[in-house]
C-alpha cells in the first residue's frame, strides 16, 4: 500500500520547519476577496497566495475574518467580489464538494465528529469521495469477495496507515466521544487526511489544548507537511506555535489585510504589533 501522498521533500530538521524543505510555485491564490453579510463587511479586498509544500498561517484578533476566509476558500461562503485560483483554474464561486474533489480538505474549529462511532469509522468517513462502487454494489455484497469488498479492504488499509501515522492505534475501536479532547482533534485531522488532500485547511487545530497536546499536534502538522508534501493553511491563536511552524503569515484585522510575510517580517511589522501582538520584541 502506498503512503498517503508520495513524499516530495526530505523531512525538515526538528524544530526548524523551513530548513531543507522545497517550497514550490503558487498553488492557491486569493484575489481581492470581499464578503458581506447584509451591511456587515466580513472581508474587504483580501489578496494573498499559498505556495506548494509551505505552511501558510492566517492570524488576527477574534472577529478579524480568519474563518470567513477559509469558508470562502473551501466553498462554504460565496464572496460578493474577487476570485480564487487553484492550480491555474480561477473560480468566482464553488461548492464544498467541488473543492474537496479538487484536493482541498478542511478541519473546523468546532469538532463535527460522529461521537458514537469508532476512531476507525470516523476516519473511514473521509474516504467517501474516493469510493468508486455505488450504493447498490455496496448493499448487495458478494460473498465471493466482489468489487465493493475489495474496495473496502483497500480503503481500510489506507485508514490504518493514517491511524499508525497519528499514533492512535490503541483507540482505533474506541467511540470518539469517549476520547480526551486532544485525541478527538487528532481524529479530526485523520479524517481530513483520509481524503488525500493537496491543500489542508486547519481552523484552530490546537484550540482548547494543553501545552503537551499542542506540541503533539504541531509535530503532526509538520510531519504531514514535511513527509507527504501537503500544503497547509493554518488559523491559530497561539503566536508561539504560529511563529515556530509557519513559513509565511498573513495578518487580518477587522476583515482587512494588515500584514503579510515571513514570521520575522510579521513580528517586526508596527501595524501588526499594534493590532495583534501588543508589544515589539
Task: Give a verbal description of the structure.
This protein has 10 helices and 10 strands. The protein is α/β, with parallel strands linked by helices. The strands form 2 sheets. A 6-stranded mixed beta sheet has the order 6-7-8-3-9-10, with helices on both faces. A 4-stranded antiparallel beta sheet has the order 2-1-4-5, with helices on one face. α7 links the parallel β7 and β8. The radius of gyration is 19 Å and the shape is globular. The protein starts with 25 loop residues before the first strand and ends with a helix. Residues 1-20 and 134-140 have low confidence and may be disordered.
Summary, kept brief:
This protein has 281 residues and is α/β, with parallel strands linked by helices.
| Mean residue pLDDT | 84
Major sheet characteristics: 6 strands, mixed
Number of strand segments: 10
**Which residue ranges are poorly predicted, with pLDDT under 50 across at least 5 consecutive positions?**
1-20, 134-140
Topology:
Blueprint: E1 26-37, E2 40-51, E3 55-59, H1 66-73, E4 81-86, E5 89-91, H2 96-102, E6 104-107, H3 119-124, H4 135-139, H5 147-165, H6 181-193, E7 199-203, H7 211-228, E8 231-235, H8 239-245, E9 248-253, E10 256-261, H9 263-267, H10 270-277
Parallel strand pairs: 3-8, 3-9, 6-7, 7-8
Antiparallel strand pairs: 1-2, 1-4, 4-5, 9-10
